[in-house]
Amino acid sequence: MCTLERQYRFQWEPAQNSFVLLYPEGMVKLSGSAAEIMKRIDGSSSPAEIVRGLEQAFPGVELRQDVMDFLEAAYARGWIRVGQTE
Amino acid sequence: MTNPLWLNAEVTFKCPLHCVYCYNPVDYTRFGPELTTDEWLRVLREARELGAVQLGISGGEPLMRDDIEVMVAEARRLGYYTNLLTSGVGLTEQRIAAFKQGGLDQIQLSFQDSTRELNDFLSSTRTFELKSKVARLIKQYDYPMVLNVVLHRMNIDHIQAILEMAEAMGAEHVELANTQYYAWALLNRDQLLPSAEQLRRAEEITNQFRARVGSKMKLYFVVPDYYANRPKACMNGWGAVFLNVAADGVALPCHEARMLPGLTFPNVREHDVRWIWHESPGFNAYRGDSWMAEPCRSCPDKSKDFGGCRCQAYMLTGAATNTDPVCDLSPNHHLITDIVAKAQSAERPATVHPIVFRDDKNSRKLSEKNRSETAAAE
């Protein structure tokens, strides 16, 4: 399962007209597709479930590799952690 | 013009500590009454509407106020990412539990030094045991342990012990910030500015420590700008992203700007934050680059560092529009190098005045001095 690291907060930011990731003394503006993935990082969904959810929301698009790449990058930046479901 | 991203709420200038490097204005005792809870909540709402998203609650010691819980909860409701900057004095379990419930995102704990004697001397109170206790509370309530240690001539040689203490406390982020020479720190600069050799050794020890602990502790070492040859991009530009509201409601583009002559800064009691940010003469004074003098005016770096710090330029050269003398292109750069040269001697210069602790008595004395100097100038 994927969980947002505790010092990060994901939210809609009206002044930026985009979803953002907030952290101490900083903010990352997210692209639309990054935001769709982040919305599904809820502490209980696995990477495979996140892919399935997105493929249902955006039928007919091959998303798996893009999602995996994003999750890897997010992990490398310390935004998320990936663990086993209890 | 950009909108503010950052609101710093200096909710009080009251403080149980008396740190000799404090950046609060030295004449804080002559400021008007503190904003009420309702006034602060209005400031939070108005700044948030403009786009501010990072909120710092600082002081003084913010926990000297009993309504921080109310501000924290409202800040969370509004969507701020809120950071409480505290010495830890007054952070009881009851309060931290309320902060957690209200949605406070981060607590940054300041530490004077790792040895109790020096800690108590520098902050002039016996707070070390208390801070260790607070550090445990921060952990217990599942906050990241963020430690801020201000470095200077008298504690920088203890850096190994400071780092070991941070590790023992389970600190995840440690900022080793060298003193910046404003306000009280400027008064005490001769006692506080470290030598180049002290800095070199401290950075070397920090690097060794960083290599050993790896990613479990993020270490930031901030060198004093007196040792740089290009100025800092102060506040990311005047009135660009940072909005400071002081305890008495005066809105400022940085913590120190109130000292600048010829400018009047608006009070949130009299104006809304939108007007303050966009329209007030104070916030527009040093926006852009039309105010710049040479060598900044024709410098390719002017969009990168904005000519450095207006307050430092004023304090050291007498004019806020001058290039920050930290820059080696400034004709006044010798002012910095002369001070730095004096700091290389192991002995305290004979002319040094006694160290000045930040307290109400000294502040009243300094306010009186400022007032009579201003009157004389007029």
**What is the typical, i.e. mean, pLDDT of chain A?**
91
What is the strand tally of chain B? Answer: 9
Largest interface, C-beta within 8 A: A-B, 14 and 15 residues
First-to-last CA distance of chain B: 36 Å
Rg of chain A, alpha carbons: 13 Å
Structural class call of chain B reads alpha/beta
Catalogue the unreliable spans of chain A: none
Assign an overall shape of chain A.
globular
| Percent in strands of chain B | 5-15%
The mean pLDDT of chain B is 92
Rounded to an integer in angstroms, the radius of gyration calculated over CA atoms of chain B is: 20 Å
Distance between the termini of chain A: 9 Å
Number of helices of chain A: 3
Judged by helices, strands and strand pairing, the structural class of chain A is alpha+beta
Report strand order across the widest sheet of chain B: 7-6-5-4-3-2-1-8-9
How is the largest sheet of chain A built, in terms of strand order? 2-3-4
SS strand fraction of chain A:
15-25%
Largest sheet of chain A, in brief, is: 3 strands, antiparallel
Structure characterization notes:
The complex is a heterodimer of chains A (86) and B (378). Chain A has 86 residues and is α+β, with helices and mostly antiparallel strands. Chain A is 37% helix and 24% strand. Chain A is built from 3 helices and 5 strands, in the order ββββαααβ. Chain A has helices at residues 32-39, 47-57, 64-76, and strands at 2-4, 9-13, 18-23, 26-29, 80-82. In chain A, strand 2 (9-13) and strand 3 (18-23) form a beta hairpin. Chain A is globular, with a radius of gyration of 13 Å. The mean pLDDT of chain A is 91. Chain B has 378 residues and is an alpha/beta fold. In chain B, 38% of the residues lie in helices and 12% in strands. Chain B is built from 15 helices and 9 strands. Chain B has helices at residues 37-50, 68-78, 93-102, 116-123, 128-140, 159-168, 183-187, 189-192, 196-213, 273-278, 281-284, 302-305, 310-317, 333-342, 360-377; strands spanning 6-10, 54-58, 81-86, 106-111, 146-151, 173-178, 218-222, 242-245, 251-252. In chain B, strands 7-6-5-4-3-2-1-8-9 form a 9-stranded mixed sheet. In chain B, helix 1 (37-50) links the parallel strand 1 and strand 2. In chain B, helix 1 runs parallel beside helix 2 (68-78) and helix 2 packs parallel to helix 3 (93-102).
